[in-house]
Automatic annotation (TrEMBL):
<dbReference type="InterPro" id="IPR008972">
    <property type="entry name" value="Cupredoxin"/>
</dbReference>
<keyword id="KW-0472">Membrane</keyword>
<keyword id="KW-0679">Respiratory chain</keyword>
<feature type="transmembrane region" description="Helical">
    <location>
        <begin position="98"/>
        <end position="116"/>
    </location>
</feature>
<keyword id="KW-1278">Translocase</keyword>
<comment type="function">
    <text>Subunits I and II form the functional core of the enzyme complex. Electrons originating in cytochrome c are transferred via heme a and Cu(A) to the binuclear center formed by heme a3 and Cu(B).</text>
</comment>
<dbReference type="InterPro" id="IPR036257">
    <property type="entry name" value="Cyt_c_oxidase_su2_TM_sf"/>
</dbReference>
<dbReference type="Pfam" id="PF00116">
    <property type="entry name" value="COX2"/>
</dbReference>
<dbReference type="InterPro" id="IPR011759">
    <property type="entry name" value="Cyt_c_oxidase_su2_TM_dom"/>
</dbReference>
<keyword id="KW-0249">Electron transport</keyword>
<comment type="similarity">
    <text>Belongs to the cytochrome c oxidase subunit 2 family.</text>
</comment>
<dbReference type="GO" id="GO:0004129">
    <property type="term" value="F:cytochrome-c oxidase activity"/>
</dbReference>
<feature type="transmembrane region" description="Helical">
    <location>
        <begin position="55"/>
        <end position="77"/>
    </location>
</feature>
<dbReference type="InterPro" id="IPR002429">
    <property type="entry name" value="CcO_II-like_C"/>
</dbReference>
<keyword id="KW-0186">Copper</keyword>
<keyword id="KW-1133">Transmembrane helix</keyword>
<protein>
    <recommendedName>
        <fullName>Cytochrome c oxidase subunit 2</fullName>
        <ecNumber>7.1.1.9</ecNumber>
    </recommendedName>
</protein>
Length: 304
């Protein structure tokens, strides 16, 4: 009997190991992709912190689920009815009941601690920002205003999207950035998937149930798509923008151009004109590379 039970246990362990190996191999995912559990690769330390919290929470949940499954399947497999005699009853085993109560409380407390510390880190605004940008959402566009940089006419450097250009939010890497969010009409939502972060944009900050500003730093250069993540009207799906992360020296060069007059047009440089003037490859592409404007030409499509 013991030999049969030992053989059965070994068979179950082998089958479980094989199932796990097949699951990992069939997914075609790298170790990093598996541990991200579907989360995108973040480009900020705050994004990495949230991903680590997610990874730890999922691993903890899987471990608890596995233990529960074992506790359920163990009596089903190894304690099946063999006679009319009742097995030993444990419903009044107080030490065991205390263990079953304490363990979930400890798990919840640990998850609460790591959630609270991660949230405090992500929402921390104690740093003196190197760049402050006002993010203004309106149907169905974005304006990015840099109050610390002035054009020759004395107005803040500002970028607004159009029917032909996606608005570019140009930012430096390795610097603290503060985003001040405001809507001029309905509720929008500022969402950059590469930040692993989004926040609603309210018309009245005084009636906002969440903080209307946040800070972060960006780790890597590149172009990253942004969206409005709050249904805000007919053209909500076309309300995209692009974050263009530049090394600080290129960012300063970009801002230097934005604060000057373009001799070709007689007006201050626009975002696309400044980037084109810099001529630094794909990183300075004058137009968005991650998304495209909504085609407003009514003759662009034909009826079926």
């Amino acid at each position: 009997m013991r030999l049969m039970e030992g053989t059965r246990k070994a068979r179950v362990a082998k089958l479980a190991g094989l199932a796990g190996l097949v699951a990992v191999a069939a997914s075609g995912c790298s170790t990093d992709e598996v541990l991200r559990f579907g989360w995108p690769v973040g480009i900020t330390p705050q994004a990495d912190s949230m991903r680590d919290l997610w990874t730890g929470s999922v691993i903890a949940a899987l471990a608890v689920g596995l233990i529960v499954a074992i506790l359920i399947l163990w009596p089903v497999v190894f304690h099946r009815k063999r006679s009319e005699e009742l097995p030993k009853q444990l419903q009044y085993n107080h030490p065991l009941e205390i263990v079953y109560t304490v363990i979930p409380v400890v798990i919840v407390a640990v998850l609460f601690y790591f959630t609270a510390t991660t949230e405090n880190y992500v929402t921390d605004k104690s740093h003196t920002p190197d760049v402050t940008v006002d993010v203004i959402g309106f149907q169905w566009n974005w304006e990015f205003k840099y109050d610390n940089y002035k054009t020759p006419d004395g107005n803040p450097v500002s970028t607004v999207g159009s029917s032909s250009e996606i608005p570019l939010l140009v930012l430096p890497t390795k610097k603290w950035i503060q985003y001040n969010l405001l809507s001029t009409d309905v509720i929008h939502s500022f969402w950059v998937p590469a930040f692993n972060f989004k926040r609603d944009v309210f018309p009245d900050p005084d009636k906002n149930n969440q903080d209307s500003s946040f800070q972060n730093t960006i780790d890597q250069t590149g172009a990253f798509v942004g969206h409005c993540a709050e249904l805000c009207g007919a053209y909500h799906s076309a309300m995209n923008f692009e974050v263009r992360a530049l090394p600080d020296d290129l960012f300063q060069q970009y801002m230097s151009l934005r604060t000057k007059v373009n001799t070709k047009t007689g007006k201050p440089y626009t975002a696309s004109e400044a980037l084109a003037e810099m001529n630094c490859g794909d990183l300075c592409a004058p137009l968005a590379t991650t998304t495209h404007p909504f085609n407003t030409d009514r003759t662009a499509r034909t009826g079926s």
